[in-house]
From TrEMBL:
It comes from Edaphosphingomonas haloaromaticamans. Chloride binds at Y216, R516. The lineage of its organism: Bacteria, Pseudomonadati, Pseudomonadota, Alphaproteobacteria, Sphingomonadales. Disulfide bonds join C346-C364, C532-C544. Zn(2+) 1 binds at H377, H381, E405. This is Angiotensin-converting enzyme.
């Protein structure tokens, strides 16, 4: 999963230099609406001015990890955290002021709620908090596992988890990565939670989780209920996919490796975190229908694609919708491949360094179908960032964080056989016929549907950690229990109390809220269906590609350019006509597959 830099920056801080309350209203005087307007304007200027050097430092640290760049990132992060907390507390002074305009009220709420890791006012707390955050991110970026006893870096181990089929080697990679990367940061994580929770309480929240859930134009409890409702809509589809996949893994590996009932062994699913299963499609593909007639990785290699050409291909999709080309600086500044001479964070992300058009992606691209899809996803962030760049600073973000993730995913859903033909990758004679649709849908579901419970449980675990119901000594026990409850998976080896498996997932040490990715899985199908309806598509939904449709592009841009200036239901309605997030578009997309899975699982003992 990927994050735009505007979201990533707030993982260290939202803020900027302190804006003195005395500049707007005396401490003993009741603040007025005019005072609030002036405070917001000054705060936005300070935020804007500091955000650029902060982004530049963060970019250098992510693409050139050294003790010095770690120190610089910590320094800027600490300044930002201290200032963002002061701004948030000052914003709270205006909470009850009468006569506030819509924009001032909304921006005050963003200032108060938008800090991902708030530090308390205690001297040195912000510095310690950012030192912990930077150290954990660097530990992750430098992380190594082993394969056949030989050291292997994070980027390569991710790839090998998808291609190796030897269960002993898969177990070795899984265990070494989780032990080497996660376990060492457990104490740092517990201390970070302690500090940030105190900061959240000083801002008036019960805990940090409640603060995170306040960012969705509804109460924290209402948002938690919404995520549960969405999960229950799509859970039956996941349950059928789990049952079918487990059967296929049992057939391949036998009862001694993967029993025919109960949970699935986590390392057998083609992904270090068992969050997406598409890499083992060859294991689960149904006879006949499973061979869809092409493999995107093979097509890319046959056509001589390299990293740059893959990114150009992603840009071409957006150009076909009428969006302007990416700026020259994008091609000059982005990191497309892993440098041979230094440590970098390979986790893919999209960046907006100057809040205008210094757009970049940071990847360690390999020529394969997964990275081709990821490129389309990351560029979705960049085009969203550019679309709203005329908004004021506090509105430079998606309608909610799920929107930012869903845009590129909706584009990637349009990477259909028809699209591959139109860009010259696939021979028209090799377009799979309708009787291959189950294979096409199953391959999509192995990523899109399989991800759903993982997308939900990462933050369910953190919400429990933040509210104290999960104590540090139970971190891993609770993590494993949630993985079993929601995903129906189990670790390949026994996990001790000293383990910290959540830390082996980038977004946990990076303190990136994760529910956005669950929301994005739901929203992308709503966006995709709306685009296909606007394009006049009449065939099966999963075969639709709106590539080249400038009307869809124009309508999409109307939503994108709103940024965070309106509540997310307004933005959703602007493009889809609906004000509700729901899973019905996803269910409609996979309906033929659901019917087929139920037939395949007939007589099986499903569940775990």
């Amino acid at each position: 999963m990927k994050i735009p830099f505007r979201a990533a920056v707030s993982a260290v801080a939202l803020g900027a230099l302190a804006v003195s309350a005395a500049a707007f209203a005396a401490k003993d005087a009741a603040p007025t609406a005019t005072d609030a307007d002036r405070f917001v304007a000054a705060a936005e200027k300070e935020l804007f001015d500091l955000s650029i050097p902060t982004a530049q430092v963060a970019w250098v640290n992510a693409t050139y990890i050294t003790d010095d760049t770690d120190a610089l990132n910590t320094l800027f992060g600490a300044k930002n955290t201290e200032a963002s907390v002061r701004l948030a507390k000052e914003a709270a002074r205006y909470d009850k002021v009468a006569g506030l305009s819509f924009d001032t009220r909304r921006k005050l709420d963003i200032l108060r709620q938008g800090i991902v890791l708030p530090a308390p006012a205690t001297e040195g707390a912000a510095t310690e908090l950012n030192a912990l955050s930077t150290r954990m991110s660097s530990t992750y970026g430098k992380g190594r596992g082993t394969l056949a006893g030989k050291e292997i870096n994070g980027s390569d181990i991710e790839e090998k988890m998808g291609t190796v089929r030897n269960p002993d080697q898969l177990k070795e990679m899984w265990a070494s990565w989780h032990d080497n990367v996660g376990k060492p940061m457990k104490a740092d994580y517990a201390r970070m939670v302690e500090i940030a929770n105190q900061g959240a309480k000083e801002l008036g929240y019960k805990d940090l989780g409640a603060m995170w859930r306040s960012n969705y134009d509804m109460s924290p409890d209402e948002f938690a209920r919404l995520t549960d409702k969405l999960w229950l809509q799509v859970k039956p589809l996941y349950d059928q996919l789990h049952c079918y996949t487990r059967t296929k893994l049992n057939e391949k590996y036998g009862d001694g490796v993967q029993p025919r009932t109960g949970p699935i062994r986590a390392d057998l699913l083609g992904n270090m975190w068992a969050q997406e299963w598409g890499n083992i499609y060859d294991v689960v593909a149904p006879a006949g229908a499973g061979d869809v007639g092409y493999d995107t990785t093979d097509l890319l290699k046959a056509k001589g694609y390299d990293a740059l050409k893959m990114v150009k291909g992603g840009e071409n999709f957006f150009s076909s919708l009428g969006f302007a080309p990416l700026p020259d600086s994008f091609w000059q500044h982005s990191q497309f491949t892993k440098p041979a001479d230094r440590e970098v964070i390979c986790h893919a992300s999209a960046w907006d360094v100057d809040n205008k058009d210094d757009l970049r992606i940071k990847m360690c691209i390999k020529v394969n179908g997964d990275d081709f899809t990821t490129i389309h996803h990351e560029l979705g962030h960049n085009y969203y960032q550019r679309a709203y760049n005329k908004q004021s600073y506090l509105y430079l973000n998606g309608a909610n964080d799920g929107f930012h993730e869903a845009i590129g995913d909706a584009i990637a859903l349009s990477i259909t056989p028809d699209y591959l033909v139109r860009i010259g990758l696939l021979d028209p004679a090799k377009v799979p016929p309708a009787d291959k649709d189950i294979g096409l849908l199953l391959r999509q579901a192995m990523d899109k549907v399989a991800f759903l419970p993982f997308g939900l449980l990462v933050d369910k675990w953190r919400w429990g950690v933040f509210d104290g119901s999960i104590a540090p000594q139970d971190y891993n026990k609770a993590w494993t229990a949630l993985r079993l409850q929601y995903q129906g998976i189990t670790p390949p080896v026994e996990r001790g109390a000293d383990a910290f498996d959540p830390g082996a997932k980038y977004h946990v040490p990076a303190s990136t809220p994760y529910t956005r990715y669950f929301l994005a899985r739901i929203l992308q199908f709503q966006f995709y269906k709306a685009a296909c309806d606007q394009a006049g598509w009449k065939g099966p939904l999963h075969r639709c590609s709106f590539y080249g449709n400038k009307e869809v592009g124009a309508n999409l841009n109307k939503m994108l350019e709103m940024g965070m200036s309106k509540p997310w239901p307004d933005a959703l309605q602007a493009f889809t006509g609906s004000r509700e997030m729901d899973g019905t578009a996803m269910i409609a997309y996979f309906k033929p597959l659901m019917t087929w899975l139920e037939q395949q699982n007939k007589g099986k003992t499903c569940g775990w």
